[in-house]
Design goal:
The protein has 530 residues and is an all-alpha fold. The protein has a domain of 66 residues. It is 66% helix and 0% strand. It contains 28 helices and no strands. α7 runs antiparallel to α8 and α7 packs parallel to α9. The termini are far apart. The relative contact order is 0.03. The C terminus is likely disordered. GO terms for molecular function: mRNA 3'-UTR binding.
Length: 530
């Protein structure tokens, strides 16, 4: 139960109290409750600012209350300014002959300050004098806190001036919490002037940060940010960290995305944190706050396709193809075109590819061009050993393929049992984009040839390329010939070598650069040029 109080800064007091009640109820059902448990429950209720009905609480106790129980009950009702219940409890304490000490008077001072301001406090201070109980620094702190809760700025500032010497740094932080909770955070600049506390020490830095986080979860992020900017210098934290813990909590607390974006915009203008938006987008995605993530993404300038990858992955898990197409549609609405990697690895991979042509049609209807779709779709099919379907698409659409994207897939998933004609169809689509695509394939596939059957396949490939009148670079041809010579001689090797030499432009003579002296166009310099 002790952990259900302010230590849980990322929950509202109401949520913390519900947890405390559940734990207490479980203990009662197990018949494990004694007076100490009741007292702990009261202490947590006080910390969570929960109202307690004094009479009902005592009636529900399964054991006898002790003096601490009455003192906690008094504190509980005084914390919320309930003077009537406080009077009843004090009467009961007198009947039980409990000592009227300074602690008792201090909580009464708090209650009367909350309800009646300075005028309400005066009678209690006189009663203290009559009872020979001296007012201490704690008494004055109670007056100041009570007046903050009372809500009269003039009286609060007056008391602060009167007793400013009793306010230590921790007290100052507690007062910031009270003002922030009540919506009086604009008073804090005058507080600084009066108290002279202009910075938070390192030993209280963590408590100050927790205060800001708690305010965010209480719905007052404005106060949290105001305090934070006042007491934390951008230069005192690593680049990109300024105010980020607060922004993180704003996402967790599900603060309206527009408010979060406005804060980020201000930080960027102030040059105190220029990377918060992208980092916070990652937080929203990780925590599963997709609506917030979408709004944050829309605020990003120069959105790149990979920003959508987490959205596509999540959508694919939830709704497979329908989810993916939905994200793609939003992507296009934001004027972002998906690249090949985005389509292949984060879209097509999660779609129904039983009929690739129909998938292409569905993607095309979203607003993608055939050129954008065909390359990643063909690459995907090659990796799935469905090259025949890839070839069908190539026949249907007169669109070049990106060698940068498809060639690695073709080589990595090379199969010596594939129909050579299918490979040639793919290569013809690739050389439109990269003239050296065929050369790369011939060189790299030759290295994979480790058997007679594989060399036969290689021969068929070269023959098919020759038949299609596809040329190769002379330098590459020489490289292939050297590769053939490194293998054990055989009739097939000779046949391959012969075919390679027959490719147009592979002889040394045809590739040599003519010497200027031998050139039919002599390099004479006319006298008129001087």
């Amino acid at each position: 139960m002790k952990c259900c109080g302010p230590l849980v800064v990322d929950h509202t007091p109401k949520a913390r109290q519900l947890l405390c009640v559940a734990i207490f109820a479980k203990l009662k059902s197990l018949n494990l409750v004694d007076v100490q448990h009741y007292n702990t429950y009261l202490q947590v209720s006080i910390e969570n600012k929960m109202r307690i009905n004094y009479t009902e609480f005592l009636e529900q106790m399964s054991c006898e209350p002790n003096e601490q129980t009455f003192r906690l009950l008094l504190k509980a009702v005084c914390e919320v300014g309930d003077i009537q219940q406080a009077f009843k409890i004090v009467t009961a304490m007198k009947e039980n002959k409990f000592l009227a000490n300074e602690e008792l008077f201090n909580v009464l001072v708090l209650a009367h300050a909350i309800r009646g301001g300075l005028n309400g406090v005066a009678p209690i201070l006189k009663t203290m004098q009559s009872a020979h109980v001296s007012a201490s620094d704690n008494t004055f702190r109670m007056i100041i806190r009570g007046l903050a809760l009372y809500g009269d700025k003039a009286e609060f500032m007056k008391s602060l001036r009167m007793y400013s010497n009793v306010i230590q740094e921790k007290d100052f932080i507690h007062l910031l919490m009270v003002l922030g909770t009540k919506g009086f955070h604009s008073w804090f600049s005058e507080m600084i002037e009066i108290t002279g506390l202009k910075q938070i020490s390192k030993q209280n830095a963590e408590e100050f940060t927790l205060l800001c986080i708690a305010l965010i979860h209480l719905g007052n992020s404005e106060a949290a940010l105001l305090y934070y900017k006042q007491f934390v210098e951008p230069s005192s934290v690593p680049t990109g960290d300024f105010a980020f813990p607060l922004l993180h909590e704003m996402v967790i607390a599900q603060i309206e995305p527009k408010k979060i974006i406005d804060v980020i915009s201000d930080l960027k203008k102030e040059d105190s944190n220029t990377v918060a938006l992208e980092r916070l987008l990652g937080v929203a995605l990780k925590e599963g706050f997709m609506d917030t993530a979408w709004e944050l993404l829309k605020a990003v300038t120069n959105i790149r396709p990979h920003y959508f990858w987490p959205f596509l992955l999540r959508a694919s898990k939830e709704r497979r193809e329908i989810g993916v197409l939905g994200v793609l549609e939003e992507m296009l609405k934001m004027n972002v075109r998906p690249d090949g990697d985005t389509l292949e690895y984060y879209c097509i991979h999660f779609c129904d590819t039983e009929d690739p042509h129909q998938l292409l049609v569905r993607l095309h209807k979203l607003g993608l061009t055939v050129r954008e779709i065909l390359t990643p779709l063909v690459s995907f099919l090659i990796k799935q050993s469905r090259i025949d379907l890839a070839v069908n698409l190539c026949h249907q659409y007169d669109v070049a393929l990106s060698a940068h994207h498809v060639l690695p897939s073709l080589l990595k998933n090379w199969n010596f049992k594939t129909d050579v004609n299918n490979i040639v169809v793919i290569l013809k689509k690739l050389i439109v984009d990269a003239h050296d695509a065929v050369s790369q394939v011939l060189v790299k596939v030759l290295k994979k040839c480790n058997s007679l059957d594989q060399l036969k396949f290689y021969l068929q490939l070269v023959q098919a390329l020759k038949l299609e009148k596809i040329d190769i670079n002379p330098t590459v041809a020489e490289h292939i010939l050297n590769g053939l010579r490194s293998k054990e001689p055989s009739p097939i090797l000779k046949e391959i070598e012969s075919l390679i030499c027959q490719f147009e432009g592979t002889s040394i003579e045809s590739s040599a650069i003519p010497h200027p002296v031998c050139s039919p166009f002599s390099m004479r310099v006319s006298q008129s040029t001087f």
